[in-house]
């Protein structure tokens, strides 16, 4: 009897609408095959939501796609061209080690970019090898998943495969490919590229494409490009406020790393803040603190101004009018950001209604936290549960006074204490991916091939607002190192 082989369809349903844009926007190119791909981690819930079959993805053919050794039907792999201000300096960039396979059209009808990161050299690789190392790709997987679970818009990670080839960084490392999933990979830098080197028609094509992908609700009668600018500003104001509220530091907020969709993208030297201090920087290359925690809203505004500049010719035929429209839109950012932040902070303190003095109350707490080096996440968690560990801050007179003011403030709203507590519980995460925990997971995985540490970490990070007993251990600070934590770009 011949063996009956049951073929399970993987569920790829790809189209590449980006490939229909002007040819100068990208370079068509297949991934460079790798020697012996092996699946390291697969994001089951994400795969399922994309309409993919997890069993089929784990088969040889399934993994071959995730490694770039096979191209699924409908994919048209391409490297996107873009430019960007890196630490303030304008440069030509582009996908130097990534390829967009296309958009997966999901069972819900959404279009989601599928990109292989670490898939080989492209025409934009400059001196790079086009590859990625296992450690940084797993780091992106962990942090992006944590961000998603914290309810922060983000690009996500479908899978990491090792390539069976090594990459040379400071040392020899395992090569890996991450499958990145995003609403799109349109960046401020994409507009900068077309604005600098393309025609106005090309710029219009890019803007129309962005509107269609992310803001299809645009009204036919309005200035559609002003609408685009305003909506991008709104989404970024919301995103940056969410970062600030959980203490996330992106680390490399170059304009090429800022999306138009409002998703967090490019997890290089990012990390979460422990002790509250607006000057916190983790990235080893951010010597002047350009991308410090407290500077992120300001940098976002700066990046958005660069975006506005690129679309001036679309905003109005009269340049003076165009500049005026752009400036007015940009000047809204600060207020939009601030109202998102303030609303989030009220939630973190269990406050439902609005009083003029709320900001003073919040700032009072933050400045005490800074003075006493209090841990950002754990302080809010302690306030949520009224369980004050013996940190210096909680023993001070100034804290006692502040606490009285806060309790009085809670007393001036209709909602009972229990509602405040519930609001705080859903606004203050039990844990963040602590730097030492992430390092520990990566070390076990990369050095010892033991993925269980990472799996446990991903598990506790999957419900950050559950406040379960298992999470308590993961919220502790590192006992070991007093040295400042340093992160590096995963190139
Ligand atoms: P990033 O710091 O990841 O935002 O990358 C900045 C630029 O460098 C982008 O154009 C990347 O595609 C490119 N790049 C980063 N790493 C590599 C690499 N290993 N090989 C080629 N290009 C790279
Ligand atoms: Mg980048």
Automatic annotation (TrEMBL):
InterPro entries: SelO (IPR003846). Pfam families: SelO. Keywords: ATP-binding, Magnesium, Manganese, Metal-binding, Nucleotide-binding, Nucleotidyltransferase, Transferase. It catalyses: L-tyrosyl-[protein] + UTP = O-(5'-uridylyl)-L-tyrosyl-[protein] + diphosphate; L-histidyl-[protein] + UTP = N(tele)-(5'-uridylyl)-L-histidyl-[protein] + diphosphate; L-tyrosyl-[protein] + ATP = O-(5'-adenylyl)-L-tyrosyl-[protein] + diphosphate; L-threonyl-[protein] + ATP = 3-O-(5'-adenylyl)-L-threonyl-[protein] + diphosphate. Mg(2+) binds at residues 257, 266. One of its GO terms (molecular function) is ATP binding. The active site is at residue 256. The keyword Nucleotide-binding applies. Its EC number is 2.7.7.-, 2.7.7.108. Its cofactor is Mg(2+); Mn(2+). It is an enzyme of class 2 (transferase). Nucleotidyltransferase involved in the post-translational modification of proteins. It can catalyze the addition of adenosine monophosphate (AMP) or uridine monophosphate (UMP) to a protein, resulting in modifications known as AMPylation and UMPylation. Belongs to the SELO family. This is Protein nucleotidyltransferase YdiU. It comes from Clostridium pasteurianum BC1. The lineage of its organism: Bacteria, Bacillati, Bacillota, Clostridia, Eubacteriales.
């Amino acid at each position: 009897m011949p063996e009956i082989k049951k073929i399970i369809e993987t569920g790829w349903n790809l189209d590449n609408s980006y490939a229909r844009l002007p040819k100068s926007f990208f370079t068509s190119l297949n991934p460079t095959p790798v020697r012996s791909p092996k699946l390291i981690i697969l994001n089951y819930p994400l795969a399922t939501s994309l309409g993919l079959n997890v069993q089929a993805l784990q088969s040889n053919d399934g993994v071959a796609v995730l490694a770039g050794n096979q191209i699924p039907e409908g994919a048209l792999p391409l490297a996107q061209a873009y430019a960007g201000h890196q630490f303030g300096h304008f440069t030509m960039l582009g996908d130097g080690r990534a390829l967009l396979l296309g958009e997966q059209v999901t069972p819900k009808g959404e279009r989601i970019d599928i990109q292989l990161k670490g898939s080989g050299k492209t025409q934009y690789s400059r001196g790079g090898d086009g590859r990625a190392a296992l450690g940084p790709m797993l780091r992106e997987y962990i942090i992006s998943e944590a961000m998603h679970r914290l309810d922060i818009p983000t690009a996500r990670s479908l899978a990491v495969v090792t390539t069976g080839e090594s990459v040379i960084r400071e040392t020899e490392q395992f090569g890996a490919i991450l499958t990145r999933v995003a609403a799109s990979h349109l960046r401020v830098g994409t507009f900068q590229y077309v604005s600098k080197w393309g025609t106005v028609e090309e710029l219009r094509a890019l803007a129309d494409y962005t509107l269609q992908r992310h803001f299809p609700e645009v009204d036919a009668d309005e200035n559609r490009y002003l609408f685009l600018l305003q909506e991008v500003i709104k989404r970024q104001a919301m995103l940056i406020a969410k970062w600030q509220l959980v203490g996330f530091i992106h680390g490399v907020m170059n304009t090429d790393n800022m999306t138009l969709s409002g998703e967090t993208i490019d997890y290089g030297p990012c990390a979460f803040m422990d002790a509250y201090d607006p000057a916190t920087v983790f990235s080893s290359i951010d010597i002047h603190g350009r991308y410090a925690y407290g500077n992120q809203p300001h940098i976002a505004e700066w990046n958005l101004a660069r975006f506005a500049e690129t679309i001036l010719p679309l905003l109005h035929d009269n340049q003076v009018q165009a500049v005026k429209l752009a400036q007015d839109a940009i000047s809204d950012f600060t207020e939009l950001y601030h109202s998102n932040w303030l609303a989030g902070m009220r939630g973190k303190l269990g406050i439902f209604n609005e009083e003029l003095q709320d900001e003073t109350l919040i700032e009072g707490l933050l400045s005490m936290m800074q003075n006493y080096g209090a841990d950002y996440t754990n302080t809010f968690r302690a306030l949520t549960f009224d369980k004050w560990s013996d940190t210096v801050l909680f023993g001070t007179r100034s804290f006692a006074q502040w606490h009285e003011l806060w309790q009085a403030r809670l007393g001036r709203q209709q909602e009972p204490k229990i509602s405040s507590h519930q609001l705080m519980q859903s606004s203050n995460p039990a844990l963040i991916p602590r730097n030492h925990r992430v390092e520990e997971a990566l070390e076990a995985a990369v050095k010892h091939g033991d993925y269980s540490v990472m799996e446990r970490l991903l598990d506790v990070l999957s419900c950050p607002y559950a406040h379960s007993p298992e999470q308590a251990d993961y919220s502790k600070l590192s006992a070991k190192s007093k040295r400042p934590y340093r992160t590096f770009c995963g190139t």
